[in-house]
Design brief:
With about 290 residues, this protein is of the alpha/beta class. The protein is built from seven helices and 13 strands. The longest helix has 18 residues, at about 115-130.
């Protein structure tokens, strides 16, 4: 073989080795003629995923559809890809479960509230990125949370997502068996985001652990739910233990977000605004 051909092949191999494609942990999908992403109202038999999404490099997910629509409008303006008043169609307009918007290499997707809702969205989002043959994807979850020991409006960049017992794990029962998965997030990405915050200088930003709970009221130690069988002293003691363990905010999605993206080979980070409740260490901390 001519030297030039060999060198070209080596170059191609090197470039290929740098491409980090989505990994699906499901051999059954290979046997399916068509993959229907039901909750997105999209499917491989009806949509050209590489043409629609092949250029995506950044995915930002958050709770509400309106927030993610506002986010894509902001990003479009920042990237010089849109202008004020531009309309950004909802790619998932065929369903009312989730909303999805795209501009350039950025995809913005809503995920609803809580672990079940975001996990359904992630299953279909990860398959979408796989079918689109996307590579070197970074996914960031942006949202709101309750801060612990922080000024309202602070931003928490998650180091680890921990459960309600402060363990860095996501526990799920599958076919009657308990499966535990890691919830570590990308450390280098966290450092890069922290550096960005320092350069912008607009927000008090910290890196800390995020506690992911199963509900909004009792799971987060609130005193204003329909059911509350603990007292304020017990609540404050629990929040102190959480703070001492490294927890700086509480929400309801980060654990499964980290676990699923890690299994799929995606670089991920959880970036949340803390202190929506004016700090969970305050008595009562009822939403206003």
């Amino acid at each position: 073989m001519a030297p030039g051909v060999s060198n070209e092949k080596n170059t191609d191999d090197q470039q290929s080795s740098k491409e980090n494609f989505i990994h699906l942990c499901n051999p059954h999908l290979e046997k399916m003629k068509e993959d229907i992403l039901y909750h997105f109202a999209l499917g491989t038999g009806t949509h050209d995923f590489p043409a629609l999404f092949g250029d995506v490099k950044f995915v930002c997910v958050g709770g509400s559809p309106s927030r993610m629509r506002a986010f894509i409008a902001y990003i479009a303006e920042e990237l010089g890809l849109g202008s004020p008043g531009c309309d950004y169609p909802n790619i998932c307009a065929g369903t009312d479960r989730y909303a999805m918007y795209k501009v350039g290499p950025v995809l913005s997707v809503s995920h609803g509230m809580g672990i079940p809702s975001i996990s359904i969205m992630l299953h279909e989002l990860i398959k979408l990125l796989y079918h689109a043959k996307c590579s070197n994807i970074t996914i960031v979850r942006i949202g709101t949370s309750g801060g612990i020991g922080l000024e309202p409006g602070s931003v928490v960049i998650t180091r680890q997502s921990v459960d309600a017992t402060f363990k860095p794990q996501f526990e799920q029962v599958i076919l009657g068996k308990t499966v535990i998965r890691s919830t570590n997030l990308d450390e280098q990405l966290a450092k890069e985001l922290m550096q960005c915050s320092k350069e912008i200088g607009q927000f008090n930003t910290v890196i800390g652990n995020t506690m992911c709970t199963l509900d909004f009221y009792e799971g987060q130690g609130r005193l204003d739910g329909a059911i509350c069988l603990y007292n304020e002293e017990e609540k404050l003691q629990y929040l102190k233990e959480a703070y001492d363990s490294g927890v700086r905010n509480i929400e309801m999605e980060s654990s499964v977000f980290a676990a699923m993206c890690n299994l799929s080979g995606v670089k991920v980070e959880d970036l949340v605004l803390a202190g929506v409740c004016s700090g969970l260490t305050l008595a009562g901390h009822q939403m206003e």
